Amino acid sequence: MSAGAAELLSSPYGESSYEQIRSLKKALADKSSMILALDDLQMTRFPLLLRPPQFGKSTFVQMLKCFYDISYKDRYDELFAGTDIYNANLKSHNTYHVLDIDFSQVSTRDEEEMYSSFLAAVTSGISQFKDRYPDFTFEFDSLSLSDPVSLFTQFESAYIRYSREGRLYLMIDAYDGFASRLLSRDPDLLRSSFYLLRDFYATIKAATANACSIAKIFITGESSISLDSITTGFNIALDVSSYRNLVSYAGLTEEELQKLIPELVDVAGLGTTADELIALMKPVYGGYCFSRFAGSTLYSPSMCLHYLDRVQKDQEILPPEQILDPASDPDGTGLSRLFDCAEKGLPAYIAGTCLRGDPFLIDRPALNIRLNTAKFNRDQFLSLLFYHGYLAIDHKLSSSDRLVLKIPNIFVAKQFAKHTAAFA
Description:
Structural class: alpha/beta
Distance between the termini: 54 Å
């Protein structure tokens, strides 16, 4: 490093492990204050939080694991010193046994692989639990591993024998990841996942009735496409995605970017400022809003981090519209697949509205978008576009009886232009 050059931190782009990010001293937007909302006695014990892909949901789940899991107690100072929640000194930290299950890698190739990879995700979560708690006895070899419901039931029984205090905190990441990928690719397989989800979550609900078993559950996902399956057997979950004290749990605020940019980019060496870079990024990577209670909009973390990496690497201020994050579906494949699921005439309506620059009006995002729906109607389809980040709430124009949805930024506008041209 040359004399006078800024000492920068490593970028967390592509990282989802909070433990690794903190241990390696990478730059990080501090989302720990959201724990105060989740820890509030008025908060449901079973919250569900939805956000689009690549918005930092997995890192948030991993942060919760590090904060709540007993096995991280000796590392609390290492992992949380200097964060907002550290200063709050909550007594709940490191007081639960956390079982975290990540369904983001469930296969969508065929029904057999979907079931086997779903089972593998549950097995992996239990295996990691065993690694963190060597005195927890659970022998996979003695079990039939063909059924995730039976596997979870056996785990619950073993946990109750292990600890009768009822301090199990279940964290589920990407509950609907595979369902979102199946939307237009294989509707029949999507509908068959209904029974898998219904039975699995019914088993979890039953476990919450035992005071010696599950104390709390935290679930993340992308949309409500699978909520109908969950609520059939798991009607205790509450979608808190629009709560005003949780609106920025995923995604980057402008204040967070102002702190991150000087940690990742030698702004002085480039003759610029954080505010100037934010002004460039805002129309391309910003504009996301998921609640009418939000006071401001959010930025895509993945797109911003990718752009800032390029700026620092090239030592040049680049046009953001030319630097598209490969992890954020730059060619709009996901949007194209969603259009295949719309009722006849809807794509033309969407195209016309976009060309006129008009917003879309709905009462509220659809809560349960049924898997057995052949094609999605207007409100369902607009809700899917919203859940996946293709539309955002205009918080200044929305009210309690009407939500105003609009295209959030130039990046998404170009995707709409590309994939609605044939319908215009």
